[in-house]
Amino acid sequence: MPRFLLPPARLSSLSRAAVTLTLLLCGSTSGLRAQGTEPPHNEPSWLPDVARQAGEMAKSAGNTLNEWWNSATTFISPTGPTSFLPGQISDDDKQFFAILGAVGLTLKEVTVGKGVVPEANYHFVATRDPTEADFAKAENLLRAYRDASDGMRARAKQRIARATLDTMATTGFALTAMDVTLSPWPDASYQVSARPRPETPEPPAPSR
């Protein structure tokens, strides 16, 4: 089961901030030792700037960690299986499912796995052939979804919706079923079948 930790890129940024903060603090300490014999009124002029910069960096690092922690705890909660049922999912997920429903994809089964971040899988089945009006409605819903939702998870679901509409509009093949994973990360797999060719009537037998 995939585990979501703090993004490596941001960790490296935080590490650089911590190293810089350490160097600044060490520089401050060295400066204090070097100037320890000076009277208080001869305190080096750079000390207030170093102390201020160190405080700002520490505050920035703390705020970043706090944002990451809030995102992580929000992402892994709740973990109960009933939280993944259609009536309990987020409004963002409901918007995503509405696009699929507009083109005749009906939710038939929900599978929830175990773990700190359970895997939630939704099995959809095509119950009818979408019409041009269905595609127009789905496009409008997708456009509204893009305007209302942003972020990496929302964009991942929007790409799935786009791929689904494009697949269903392909001539010669029919999307018969698809599996959508919402947790731990949005993903999808498709079952596509070739459309049966229309039967051509046999030519009439030549008259004698």
Unreliable spans? 1-39, 67-76
| Helical amount | 40-55%
- Beta strand %: 15-25%
Whole-number total of structural domains: 2
For the largest beta-sheet, the strand count, sense and barrel status come to:
4 strands, antiparallel
Q: How many H/I helices?
A: 5
Care to count the β-strands?
A: 4
What's the Cα radius of gyration? Answer: 29 Å
Describe the structure in your own words.
The termini are far apart. The model is unreliable at 1-39 and 67-76 (pLDDT under 50). The chain is built from 5 helices and 4 strands, in the order αααββααββ. The chain has a 4-stranded antiparallel β-sheet with strand order 1-2-3-4, covered by helices on one side. It folds into 2 domains: 8-75; 81-194, no CATH class. Helix 1 runs antiparallel to helix 2 (47-75), helix 3 runs parallel beside helix 5 and helix 4 runs antiparallel to helix 5. It is an alpha+beta fold.
List keywords for this structure.
5 helices, disordered N terminus, four-stranded antiparallel sheet, 208 residues, elongated, 2 domains
In summary, what is this structure?
The protein is α+β, with helices and mostly antiparallel strands and 208 residues long. It has helices spanning 8-34, 47-75, 91-102, 132-148, 152-168, and strands at 105-112, 120-126, 173-183, 187-194.
